[in-house]
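Q: What residues go here?
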């Protein structure tokens, strides 16, 4: 939590056609409520937009810290989106290599079966 304690708890995940939404399964005894998710929308044939959102309900004793907590959360989301982008880029590169290797293999198999 805020770089000091990691978030723990049980969450309900609801997947829908544009992404997913998660929320606390049970109320937290300390007054926190957490929900959030990802929405993916098509921009064009080669591009999509990923929107990440989070919603935190703070205990009343922390309301004075809301501006500081909001700044922290915006910064942490930038890091999360960067990490997601790196994961997507690595996945696409791996799939491209696999397809390329598969095409080369199919090409050489086809040349073996061609009549002399």
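A:
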């Amino acid at each position: 939590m805020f770089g000091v304690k990691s978030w723990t708890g049980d969450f309900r995940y609801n997947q829908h056609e544009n992404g997913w939404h998660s929320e606390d399964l049970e109320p937290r005894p300390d007054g926190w409520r957490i929900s959030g998710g990802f929405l993916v929308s098509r921009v064009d044939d080669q591009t999509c937009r990923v929107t990440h959102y989070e919603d935190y309900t703070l205990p009343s004793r922390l309301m004075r810290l809301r501006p500081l907590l909001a700044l922290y959360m915006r910064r942490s989301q930038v890091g999360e989106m960067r990490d997601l982008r790196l994961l997507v880029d690595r996945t696409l590169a791996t799939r491209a290599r696999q397809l390329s290797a598969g095409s080369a293999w199919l090409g050489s198999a086809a040349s073996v079966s061609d009549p002399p």
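A: Context that may help when evaluating the design: The longest helix spans residues 66-113. The CA atoms of residues 36 and 88 lie 20 Å apart.
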